[in-house]
Amino acid sequence: MTNNESVPNINNQHNMLEIVAVTLFFVILLGLGVFVYQDYGLTWDDLAQVEIGELNYKYVFEGDETLLTFKNRYYGPVFEMLLYRITRDMADPQRFFMRHFLIFSLFVIGLFFFYLLGKRITKNWAAGLLGCVLIIASPRIFAHSFFNSKDIPFMAVFIIAIFTLIRYLDRRTALNAVMHALTTAVLIGLRAPGVL
Question: What is the pLDDT of residues 44-99, one digit of tens each?
């Protein structure tokens, strides 16, 4: 076997190691979330966030104008509306447990895009995965990834928006422009600083 023939084998082994390691990492992380998401109780904001989602949902889809006089009507409603739609027929405490699991699920999706960004910037998949480990290792971020329906979705979608922006700048296609525009629209719909 020549040296040239051994290079594809090494690349294939390297790619397989990456696929196995990344898949295992995210499966374990999601499994951990499934195991602990019910360990986080109600927060100060939970009831207010449910109300934001409910009033915005009813305004958009049912024509209920109660939102127009609601004191928190300017808070970003996008994710709260989705959470309300999914959990509205659930009884307490299942409704809040489901909210916490969905917040964590979006966090994991954001982490996957963070991995892709880290891999792209460093040209090293292990470095991308290490970046994800460092985010998870922050006790505050990890805890908030279950119950903070404002900051964690904003962080996750911001990461995705940076990914779609870089992708668009690399290949200026209509599809990449639309993907970045939609991600940015969702980001702004989560919180006004998404304009950044």
Answer: 888 899 999 999 999 999 999 999 999 988 888 999 999 999 999 999 889 999 99
Dihedral pair phi/psi, residue 93, rounded to 5°: -90, 0
Residue 171 near residue 163, CB atoms below 8 Å: no
What is the Cα–Cα distance from 38 to 94, expressed in whole angstroms?
9
* Gap between the Cα atoms of 162 and 87, Å rounded: 30
Contact, 108 vs 155, CB < 8 A? no
User: What is the predicted pLDDT for the residue at 11?
Assistant: 65
Instruction: Give residue 1's pLDDT.
Output: 47
Secondary structure (3-state) at 42 = coil
119, 127 Cβ separation under 8 angstroms: yes
Question: pTM for the whole thing?
Answer: 0.89
CA distance linking residue 160 with residue 94, whole number of Å: 29
Burial of 12 (0-12, 13-18, 19+ CB in 10 A): exposed
* C-beta of residue 122 within 8 angstroms of C-beta of residue 133: no
Q: Are 160 and 110 in contact (CB under 8 A)?
A: yes
Q: Count other Cβ atoms within 10 Å, centred on residue 162.
A: 16
Q: Residue 73's pLDDT is what? A: 86
